[in-house]
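Q: Predict the assembly, please.
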Amino acid sequence: MTYDVPVAPGENAELEESVEGAVEGWPMWEVFVRARRGISHVHIGSLHAPDPRSALQNARDVYTRRGEGVSVWVVPSTEIHAFEPEAAAEYVEANEKVYRLATAYDIPDEVGQM
Amino acid sequence: MSEVVSSVPQGMPAVDMAPELQAVVAHADDNLVLAQRLGEWISYAPDLEIDIALGNIALDHLGVARALYTRAGEIQGEGRGEDDFAMRRTEREFLNLLLVEQPNGDFAQTIVRQFFFDVYQRLLWEDLSGSDDDTVAGVSARGRKEAAYHYEFSSSWVLRLGDGTEESHARTQRAVDALWRFTAELSEPYPEVWREDVDVVFAEAGLRVPGDPYQRSGGREGYHTEHLGFLLAEMQWMDRTYPGMTW
Amino acid sequence: MATLVPTKPVPTIPIEVLSAMPLFKWAHRKTEIDPRFTNERSFVYHETMSPEEKFQAIVDEESKIEPTDWMPDGYRKTLIRQIAQHAHSEIIGMQPEGNWITRAPSLHRKAILMAKVQDEAGHGLYLYSAAETLGVKRDDLQELLHRGKHKYSSIFNYPTLSWADMGAIGWLVDGAAITNQVMLTRCSYGPYARAMVRICKEESFHQRQGYELLIRLCNGSSEQKEMAQDALDRWWWPSLMMFGPIDSDSTHSEQSMQWKIKRVSNDDLRQQFVDMTVPQADFLGLRIPDPDLAWNEERGHYDFGEIDWDEFWQVVKGNGPMSRDRIEHKTRAWEEGAWVREAATAHAAKSARSAA
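A: Predicted assembly structure:
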């Protein structure tokens, strides 16, 4: 169904986003699940919980209801530190230091695979 | 302190069922009634994660009930299925513990009820995993994993509420005071172990066991509290209004 | 004592009806869902592009906008509005169906209904998580819902008055949802698209159980069949209204299309839904309550009657039969649960202090 709830004529389309003076709720946690043995944990979503024990219980209930997951990690969202390569152009040096790339070197074919 | 147990009225006939059948039906009834109670929380829980958790626990209990009713029907050998047991018996024929038919009350009462039952259910599944009946043994094996999870949920919530705020502590203590009188019937097969498990969690949560020795039992004999009738009226209404139909 | 063997064998669904059901189409088209749902980006952007150009280039290229990307304020606000209201819809949607859990006519149906409503809670949760990547807080969004500042899909403002309504909702409401949902898996905003992929995977049984429920009723007793017809009579028009106003009356559609938040127009989605659903009603032997419904050979589509737009806008404004009840229920659950949430927070703080 369309969840684009229509704006009635004369109504303001802008929706409020935040509430002044609201009570601080439960913190947010990011959930990582290893679906099967042999593959790595994958970030699958987030949830709210008051403590680590509850976060793990909730992660199991919310994200592994259909039996997905041999291992579940929960991490407080505030503990996730991020690096976004495209946003941090000044950290990217690869274009300048061409000699770090293997293709920058010409090895004669007789030498063999290198 | 010695308990004062009020039980079935004197002269009341015993349940008319073979003992091995009776045990299976009683455990099925426990799980069905508890599933029905937990189902009432759906869309009313304090937050989404709790709503989902209670729903999961309800589904687990419902699954156990269905498996045990089906087995009971097989044992009885008269062609009855799960809905015959669930929808077409009166409250005098239900053999569930009095504890599980008690109303949800507030979240504290639901959690205390669940905790008391989970301590018992874990012990029960351990017992029944050695059952001669393959189906019952199978249900117990699966039930044990589920009960471990339920216990983790209910005991951790007893701690959060018992040792949370003043209000949550007061509500949880009130719940313990209200439900304690149904625990003798529950813990009767494992009186010491059940009590030890509860005491450990209560100590950490700062909760007291009431001093009043009064205990009420009778559920296993079909002598219930007034709550069961209303629960069954709601649960059985469709089947009784439209008998014999397929859904 | 009665056994549970059905009195008539349940007929199999003919293939032309089955293939018309979107969930089957979707199952076959699983591999067609955009494989670019990884965290990798393959597009290389020119350093000379302005943030606006880069944003539109990502969108035009069918790649994904992620939370840390620059985005126009309007895009962000439109997404918050749409995702939040989608999440609210899932949560409110638990109520009309939750209403029948304790009265389900069999244990099998009780289990199915419980599982379905739980899924909806989970979907709401995934969607709130997606909304939170845009910098809003879930608790704030819920508070705004309680205060009536946020809306949810109008369909849930109708009451569920019989068991057959469970079938009608699964068949029609989830059916309509599916036509929209597959489109949303291709939405330009990464977290929303990924939430939708997850939701679509879980939806597969929702519509199916509803339709199967109705098959049983329509092949059952005359009372059961009447119950099914009555449910269709009450849910048909509200289902059509779910697709929103006609395109020319839809104020934000064009911009949403350009931003690839909305992928198909209201009118097209509604037509798709009607074309798919009419044969399904025929199979059930039920009559759709629309005297103007007729196959149009020239267009290759069903013509259908005019929606009651007065009712439509009244319900959007909050004057639906159950509008007040739904919000009161939700608000009451939240307020009565405040002491629980506070207790958990207090306990966590105590534990953290003693562990420190």
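Chain B is about 65% helix and 0% strand. The longest strand of chain B covers residues 4-6.
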